[in-house]
Amino acid sequence: MGSMTTAVSSPSPPSLPALRTAVAGVGMIGRVHLDAVRRTGAPVVGVSASTPARAKEAAAALGVERAFDTSEELVTSDDVDVVHICTPNDAHAGLAELALRAGKHVVCEKPLTTSAATADALAALAAESGRVAAVPFVYRYHPMAAEARARVLDGRAGDVRLLHGHYLQDWLSQPEDTNWRVDAVAGGPSRAFADIGSHWCDLVEWVTGHRISELTAASQTLARSGGLPATEDAVQLLFRTDRGATGTVTVSQISPGRKNRLWFEVDGSTTSLAFDQESPETLFVGSRGENAAVQRDPAVLSPAAARLSVVPGGHPMGYLDCFAAFVRDVHSAVREGGTGGAFPTFDDAARMVRLTEAVLASAADRSWKEVS
Ligand SMILES: NC(=O)c1ccc[n+]([C@@H]2O[C@H](COP(=O)([O-])OP(=O)(O)OC[C@H]3O[C@@H](n4cnc5c(N)ncnc54)[C@H](O)[C@@H]3O)[C@@H](O)[C@H]2O)c1
């Protein structure tokens, strides 16, 4: 095995007590949070679920000491320092507000809320609270996505001209496919865009430093079995950024065969950079001369990408490692008494909720919308 030049630093000075963490909602992503917290060395002291009985079952299955009867009780408990909110979307805002008012540090899943006004109010409350308030737009933590950002920032890409790509899934492609996300109350008024389009936009804005300032959207909505009021299954956007680039993105949960295909390309005046989260060990670097598939290897990456490269090249890293690195950064900020860092915050997430509202409004009246 080769040697690593840089690794993610240890999150916790040994003199500080372990952060007592609790996870509200232990479905798919709650369990990912739980594992990521444990990788930092912090104890998960409690979980909650949709009912007290389910919380007890989950606590036993996951080796967690305490099952809270409700998520409200969990996020306000005196025995908890950091809460991770991993419930369906409609519960995020209320739980995050309770947690911040109770003085907790909060990691809240995306979308932060299902309305922009609530998201902005929550971001303001987080700023007042002086607590860490983070949202897992974790694709920022792929080393090769961080390498793309480093190459834009240090000028190797040249001037950013075009942004394009897609985020495609297939798991809701049939009318009978269902999930709480399909319900406009539990999921919110936007589905595909809020659920996955927001990840693409956050990532591409972070990589380039550009902000989507104007957009026009076209969406498609399948008729669903069961007569639920339907939310959009696919959206295609055309946009301009605040720094003069233009872009397009297709977001879909009805693309057969595409499981979690988040792909973007940044075309600069010198090189193009393309990243595919399903093949995250390489970054395409295109030029008028030779093209390259730069492989993840901390020895050759930019420092910001090498930092995230916790195993040597050739030992594939992926989504779970992104999550662990995100949680490590957030917990480090909590320990160090800061509120910022490399991780996405409630401000970033509120911006994505505003973007989502602009997308819905544009798709509804077929016009261009500015994004504040
Ligand atoms: N950041 C990411 O990459 C990422 C990935 C997947 C999901 N998510 C987000 O995470 C959240 C959960 O998604 P998921 O895929 O884990 O869904 P899921 O359906 O797998 O899990 C949600 C769980 O929450 C439970 N629940 C419902 N109400 C609850 C309550 N009041 N308190 C506690 N638990 C409750 C449900 O019974 C279910 O077990 C969503 O907001 C989603 O957008 C983010």
TrEMBL record:
Q: Which GO terms describe its molecular function?
A: nucleotide binding; oxidoreductase activity
* Sequence ranges assigned to domain Gfo/Idh/MocA-like oxidoreductase N-terminal in this UniProt record: 19-135
**InterPro entries hit by this protein:** Gfo/Idh/MocA-like_OxRdtase_N, Gfo/Idh/MocA_oxidrdct_glycsds, GFO_IDH_MocA-like_dom, NAD(P)-bd_dom_sf
Q: Where is the GFO/IDH/MocA-like oxidoreductase domain?
A: 147-273
Residue spans crossing the bilayer: none
Keywords from the UniProt entry: Oxidoreductase
Kindly give the SUPFAM superfamilies that the UniProt entry links to this protein: Glyceraldehyde-3-phosphate dehydrogenase-like, C-terminal domain (SSF55347), NAD(P)-binding Rossmann-fold domains (SSF51735)
List the PANTHER family.
BCDNA.GH03377
Query: What name appears for this protein in its UniProt entry?
Result: Predicted dehydrogenase
